[in-house]
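Replying to the earlier thread about multi-chain prediction with a worked example.

Input:
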Amino acid sequence: MSRQPRPTRRQVLAGSVLCSAGLAGACTSGPPEPLAPDPLHALVSTALADAALADAVAAAHPPLAPAANALAADRRAHADALRAEVLRATPAPSPSSSATASATGASPDRATAAAALAEATMAAQAQATGLVTALPRYRAGLVASVAACCASHLAVLG
Amino acid sequence: MTSPASPAPSPAAEPDTIDAVQRALTTEHAVVWALQLVTAFLPADLGAPLAEATTTHRARRDTVGRLLRDRGAVPVTQEPAYTSPNPVTDQASALALLVTAESDAAAVWRSVVERTDDTAVRALALDSLVDAAVRATRWRRAAGAGRLTVPFPGAP
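Result:
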């Protein structure tokens, strides 16, 4: 610990108030910086990416279409519900809420495409499962259902 | 509202958590009863999944009973019989009852997820919800259903 003379608490507080005022002035042209990203944003992105992959697999491999189309529909429903919950919690628009999934291609090999879809669904289940314990109650229920839905698709795909 | 995650399972759970877990146990009793009821109506090739489902639900019933006792509650006991929404007379109605039973299980377990901050209870509820959703899908497939999944298993 330093023994040099230090500014008093009052001086520090005065300084921080000035800093804050300066920052606030500098920030008036834009929206305030969010403290932390909503953890559900990542689930929305994954759900949209999975839906896009499932669409591509269904289009490339008609025998996989029933399972892939069902997965795409459920994952889009997840994205909608999760996004609604994010907006309910934070009404201000956020970058991720308008993000669209990047274009996804399906492997020309049917087995590889099916495996990729199963792998993505397994990862989505793990992602949702990992959040359930720490989320507030209502969100935990929603995310638990997302995990359960992904698991039930795996039972079909696997 | 309490904090979303407690660091360790609380020995004395909140009353709404206990109530939700007791409702889940009641449903688990009913699922085990349904699994026994349908046995005579299902073909031999469904014997293995039926036995596996029965083992899983019985084990869960025991786990839930222990969990309740650990938290100072007396677990609800199994009734002699439960009511089936539709009479079970053949394979189709037997599989329909199993889909209903697993869907009921998914609903009560999601309800537990939403009524506890006890991490041990929430983890058990999540596992049980996932298992019920997967099993409902398998019974739908055995029944030849067109739609094998629902987007939000257990959602009210």
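The radius of gyration of chain A is 23 Å.

Feel free to reuse this layout for your own posts.
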